[in-house]
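Minutes, project check-in

Agenda point 3 was the complex the collaborators sent over. CS summarized: two entities, 900 residues total, and the question is how they sit relative to each other. Sequences were read into the notes so everyone works from the same version.
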Amino acid sequence: MHDLVIIGGGGAGLTAAIKAKKTNMDARITLINKESVSYSPCSLPFVISGEIEGLDRISHDLREICKEDEITCVIDTVTSIDVKKKVVKVGSGREFPYTSLIIATGSLPSIPPTQGIDLKGVYTLQWIEDAQAILEELRAAKNAVVIGGGSVGLEMAEAFIKRGIKVTMIQRSGHVLRRSLDPEFSKMVEDELMRNGVEILFNTPVKEIRGEGGHVNAVVTPNGEIPADIVLFGVGAVPNVELARNAGIKVDEGGIDTDDLMQTNIDDVYAAGDCVDSMSIVTGKLMLSQLGTTAIRQGTVAGMNAVGGYVTFEGVLNSMVLKLFDLEVGRTGLTVKDAEAEGIKVVIGTAVGKTKAEYFPGAKDVKIKLVFNALNRRLIGAQIAGAEGVAGKIDLLAFAIANNAEIVDLMKLKYCYTPPITPSHNLIVLAAENAFKKLRRFIEVRKRRF
Amino acid sequence: MHDLVIIGGGGAGLTAAIKAKKTNMDARITLINKESVSYSPCSLPFVISGEIEGLDRISHDLREICKEDEITCVIDTVTSIDVKKKVVKVGSGREFPYTSLIIATGSLPSIPPTQGIDLKGVYTLQWIEDAQAILEELRAAKNAVVIGGGSVGLEMAEAFIKRGIKVTMIQRSGHVLRRSLDPEFSKMVEDELMRNGVEILFNTPVKEIRGEGGHVNAVVTPNGEIPADIVLFGVGAVPNVELARNAGIKVDEGGIDTDDLMQTNIDDVYAAGDCVDSMSIVTGKLMLSQLGTTAIRQGTVAGMNAVGGYVTFEGVLNSMVLKLFDLEVGRTGLTVKDAEAEGIKVVIGTAVGKTKAEYFPGAKDVKIKLVFNALNRRLIGAQIAGAEGVAGKIDLLAFAIANNAEIVDLMKLKYCYTPPITPSHNLIVLAAENAFKKLRRFIEVRKRRF
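CS then shared the predicted structure for the full assembly.
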């Protein structure tokens, strides 16, 4: 009899459990999670904004889900893994022997050491309890400060605005989303936030968080004090690898080291989700992914392989889409910044178009940027921003990158068209044609050098 | 000096002219068109529905467009082509010698021989004058009959409803869009039309169109008479090839025969758009495409090649999307019916999902069907219907077909996700996983036979 134990019931762990059961009906599967609720952390900002009514709408009883799929669910905290004895121990003292193990311990919010972070009213948004506490507190709040310009920070800035709270974002660098987007796309996001009332302080470090009676009342920067009834840190998350490291499992650039079967360096121990390092499909190098989509795919691979299936994980492109007020912004693969850091010579294709036929009422602007490797003409990255339809295009371009598409392949795209929902000239084709023209120039410039 | 003459200023001809000029700045380009206005015929139903205010919004002066691009524009009707002398003659008697020629004569509405088709109030929708006439007549109309269930017929049924006119569709076969969709997807379109007040008579031939005082007042079927102040034939279009045929240019299955450079069988004579036969990317066989997107791409290829460039045309997938009331429906490649007719063994992947995270307010159903060749696991067709986001997915799947994607490639799609606009489980991935499971069954069934 095969005993699969899974540590963590988030996107990676729960997916692994369900896929394992479907792959091997005879396997006994035990899922250990410290919370008894299952939810998508990505949904929390939208409950806080009021767009989704209440946390009940997004959370389910993990035990109920497990029961349906004949998975044993244990609500407890894992305290140690013994990879020699092949046993997992939990807080209550119980031990769970395993034939194979999946570690899906997720990530922990990253909080830079700052005076005042322990004050009441200072939050990160990682767990459902964080959302609960913020929801309770925002009724009385008038001023919010968001520290950091990652996706959670941006979504929370919008959420506070939608609750009628004044929002100041403090951004250490010169742009929001600077790890995901090139500056001109970050700028579009910033403009959309500011247009909707978010104040953004760029290139501004946080000196201190100040409070009164144990509760935050201001954030101090070199330029002065910003009143704050509520402070949210949205500066990212770090892989939760302590348990794995203590068990002697190899940890790489921050995350657990896994191969293409999602196996760690220890036999029969797999890992998936926010706690692992992933390989970039473009560069072949390790990177952090920490996306729900990556967790689902890695959970699928780990779950199937851990019970005798065979699936390989292909790597990540960090395809991402955000909706901020009336702007959708998406990206996949490498930005120009990323490519330059890798020493890849690029050719850029850009285009500006409309969301539908330009003469159709309600047609809005969309902007696209395709990044190609200039030497082999392959697509390596894309960024899009506009009012709608961004997600489908990002998915297409991610598929194109993963399948080694070249400029001409995109120029030949067999796209569909109808005036009320798409323009007659496809934005991706236009951007590819733009890159093609520049590539000819690029080749001519090279020729002239000889 | 290179003289390029282009016959026809629609999607194919005008694109050819512009791309030719960009490819070869020294070429002298003459565009001959019988109308002095340029417009997208696909937009006409939306002017008739009132969604676009007036024909002025969608039409431009062709001569102005040509002037901007230094293209000579001649408003006249071509009467003959002399491929030996390399001269085109127009109605006014003028002759245009050419170095290379592009025929982009488009299509003509197909009207089955029926008694009463010459009555006033009986229309097809091909030219802007048709739209003008219908717009004038619909003010007084109470009952409209649409004959045929092609895309124009369906869009016109919606347009009449939006103008407060009672609509009856007469459908010779058992389903609308039966050449584009499998029955269950046709059914979704029919349900949406009926839900919005369109009456559809299936398996019903038209016996006669009846009138009084020279104007239509009823359409007669074997089951009775349907009152009609206005009748629209939406039964498709046939390639306009008379001019080419008279000049001795080879015509295939209805359309002009072209190679992958869009060359006809006569030296230096190219053809593009609705008047040509196209190759299916999936089957490698000739078929009609007659889509604006195909016209643009073929016009690009013909235009560039006709002035010394080199581009190949890759064939068609007939990617299509329609918006009918609150339903978007799209398709690309082969339907199951098509595949069966070709003798291709298929495995189907289906999935039903939501347009955004299922807990997000406003999430609506989307249904997808992927058709794979069961023997090489390649994607050969797709159909999607839902409230939104259909076009982007169809484009992705068309790209996947054209690039020989297999089931596992789609299972590995690096899609993006954010609750307000996409679900955490991508519909394409779910459908590919569904096909993969069935394929395993398919293989097991084959094994058991031996």
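Noted in discussion: Residues 3-34+76-107+237-306 of chain A form a domain with the FAD/NAD(P)-binding domain fold (CATH 3.50.50.60).
Follow-up: revisit at the next meeting once the mutant set is ready.
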